[in-house]
Amino acid sequence: MDLLAFFNLNELSLGMSKLSMYPLFDIAHYIVSLMALKEQPGAMAVARRSPFACWFSSMLFCFGGAVLSNLLLAEPPVAPLSNDGNVLLASIIWYLVFYCPQDLVYRSAALLPIRLVLSGMKEVTRTWKVLGGVAQAQKHYKDGILVMIAVGWAKGAGGGLISNFEQLARGVWKPETNELLNMSYPTKVTLMGAVLFSLQQCQYLPLQTHHLMFIYTVFLVVNKTSMMLSGSPSWLFSPVEGAAYRVLFAEQPTDLATAATSKAPRAPGRMPSSDTCAAPKQDGRAASESQNGSAASESDGEAPTESETRGEDQTPSGVGGSKKTD
Length: 326
Fold this sequence. Notes:
Helices cover 68% and strands 0% of the residues. It has helices spanning 2-6, 10-16, 24-38, 43-49, 51-72, 84-99, 104-109, 112-140, 145-161, 163-169, 185-201, 209-230, 238-248, 255-262, 275-299, 306-313.
């Protein structure tokens, strides 16, 4: 990329793409993930009541992305746990975060400068996981860009996507916290990275792999650091996201809905206020009164009332038409 070459960042991006995530960056990933698990309501109660359930949910937090991506590709979901070194390292960190005397490990890692460094290192591992998922899917489906996006998204944000299953291991069932219903920042930014790397691997994006890795990693680290320092949950593309939602998916009034509202039936008992509607009714009332008057003049000179007419209609046939009087 000419811009990176202009700033002499070509060699830096190439060198960064050859970084090994084990063990330093993996340790940062495990620490930050397990701290997030410990900060959830009821997590410490489960840790005291059932250490095995706590350990199992912790392993899902640490290796959930690899497990979910293997499930999508019909590969053994326990394959990520076959690396004994990673599982042992994650288990040691789990014990120190949850059961260290005086809670020294958690308190030390919770200090803002240390947590900033650990969170930045975790975001670096996100880039490698997303790219690894895309490359893994490309081996099975060379031109399946949607499959590549799905697997890359799952591998980079699998811990959040399977959070409901992780909660079941702790005896908690909260379907309203599903990541697909309420997407968090890691899920959104991982989906964006999966799309970018899938387009790049399919040669729709004119960038080399190590250049895109460098740009995406810098974006993740800078954005995460600014969010932690400002204490704001919104990220860089929050205004764009909100505007796109209002334009594309928010409910908008249409002409058809307006027409249906105008043709809705009026409430019963409401009289129209237009004079044009009242005029025919007045003419009809006058015509009925003239007919009643002519009928009264032919009988006894007085128009029968409505009650009398109703009484005559309801007279039994066996009485002979005579009315009962008091």
